[in-house]
Amino acid sequence: MPRNSHPASPTASSSKTLAIRPAIYRAQAPPPSAGLDDDDDSDDEVHESRVARLSRNSICNARGLQNVGCLVMVYGALLALFIGYPIATELTHKTPIAFNLNINSTGQHAVAFGNRGLIDEDTPIDKYQIPSYHDPNHVLQLVFSDEFETEGRSFYPGDDPYWEAVDLHYWQTGNLEWYDPAAITTRNGALEINLTKVDDPSKNHNLDYTGGMLSTWNKFCFTGGLIVTNVMLPGINNVFGLWPAVWTLGNLGRAGYGATLDGMWPYSYDACDVGTLPNQTLLNGPPAALNTGPDNGVLSVLPGQKLSRCTCHGESHPGPTRSDGSYVGRSAPEIDIFEGQIGGPDGAHLGQVSQSAQWAPFNAGYIWDNSSANQQVVDWSLSHHNTYTGGIYQQPTSVVTTTNQACYQLIDGCYAVQGFEYVPGYDDAVWILLLNTEHFTLKQWSQYITWITDDKVSWTLNAAGVGADPATNISARPISQEPMYIIANLGISQGFGFVDFAHLTFPATMRLDWIRVYQHPDKINIGCNPAEYPTSDYINQHIQAYTDPLLTTWVGDYKQPFPKNKLINQC
Q: 0.85 exceeded by the pTM?
C-alpha cells in the first residue's frame, strides 16, 4: 500500500520442510471371521469333539476370563484408533473456532457488542462453505465474516470487537486527507467510508479532506486462506484521483504508526544474510545493490530488517527461536486485495484495480521471476503488469486488471467481489497424508497468492517468483507466514497518481457489502498471536510505538535501538 513510506522487514529461510498430517479415520464394521466353517457337519469327529468340549466347559474359569479380557482390550484399542482418535483430532483441530467464537484477540467478549462473534449471524448459511477459487476441488470453511447489516455502527476505539478506525494523518504516502472515525459508518446493509472536502481546513488539522481507514489490527488476524469482499468503488470510472483500497498487513506493523513499520514493512524474510542489512549491502557490495536502482544506482534505502534471523540472543524480539537458538525472522508483510485506480490502454480512462504483494529485500532492478511457471494471468485482454515495478522503499509483484465498469458510486452502484487466496511459505510443496475408509491420498499444497476480480480469478503468483536472487545475494522470500489483519480505507494522494481535482465529486463513498475469510478445514489458523508467529508480548513491550502515531521512526522518535545483528559481529 505505502509507496513512499518507511517500510518493514521479514526474513526468509531456504530450508525445506515436509509436513505429513494424520488423516481422519472412520470406524468400520470388523471383518467376518476367516477360516471358520459354519456348517454343522455331524460326520466331522473333530467338530463333534470341539462342540462337546465347549458345551461342557464354562467361560467363567481363569483362562476364559483371560481370553474375554484380551478381546475387550483389543476391541477397545480398535475403537480408540478408529473412532476416538479422529474425534479428538477434530475437536482439537477446531478449537480456535469452537471455543473462541465470541472473543477477539485482545480478549474482548463480543457479548458486549450485540453478541457479534467471528461469524456474523447475518451471513447466509449457504456461504459457510464455498469452493476454493484457486482449486475448486477444495472446499473452504468460513472463519470470519461481517455483513454490515446493523444500521449506524461506529468504529471509534472500543466501539466494535473486531474493527477500529484510526484518527491520524497518513503521512507515509503524502495523503491529502485526515483519517477520521466519523467518516465511517454502516448504512443500508453496507460499510461506508466517505471522503469529503472540508470547508475550513483550519478545523481539520490544516488538511483539505477527511477520509476513513479502519482495520482489525490486533483483534482479528488470519494466516493462509481466502479473503473476499463485495465492493462498490467510489466516484466514477473515468476520473483520476481517488485511492480506495482493501488490503492486509502483518500484525507486527500497525498501519499509520510509522515507528512500528520501520525495519518491518515490506519485508518477508527468514534468512541471515545481506538481505537483512541496511541498503542490502555488506562491505560495499554486492554490485547489484549499488548499481541497479533508481537513486544513483542505489537499490534500497531500507534500514534493514529489524527483527531478523540474525538477531543476537537476548535482544528484543518476538520469537520464536529454533532448536539452534536462532530467531525466526519476523516482519510486517503486505498483500493487497485491491487498490482502485483509473487507467487503460492508449490513453483510455477505465476503472481498474491493482492487485499486489509488497516485498523486501529486493531483486536486482526490482525484476522478479515472472515466467509462465511462476505467474499465471487469466486474461491478458483485461490485465497487464503494473508499470510501477518498484523503488527504494518497496518491490511489488503487481498486475492491474480492468474491473466491472458499472460498480461505481456514480454509475450503477452495483457491487463486485474482490479478494485473494493464498498458502504461506516457500516454493517447497507441503505434502499432507489423508486417509479415509477406502484409500490413502497424498495431497500437495503449493505456495501461492491468487487474486480475484469481479468474482473470477485474475492472476496467480507462485512462490518461486520471489525465490533467491544470486545478483543481490538474497535468499528466497516466503509468501507471508505472519498473522495478517484487514484494512479498508479511502483517501486521496498525489503520491499514488494524478489527481483530477476539477472533476472529482465529493463526498466520494466506497461501500463494502460484506467481507468474509475462509480457510481449508485442515488448515484453520486464525488469531493475532499464533504460537508459531507470536505478536502479543512484543506489542505489549512496545505499546507506546503501537499507540502513538506521532512516533514515525523506531530509533529517532521512539528512541529504541534496532536489535544487534550477528552477521556484522554485533553480538
A: no
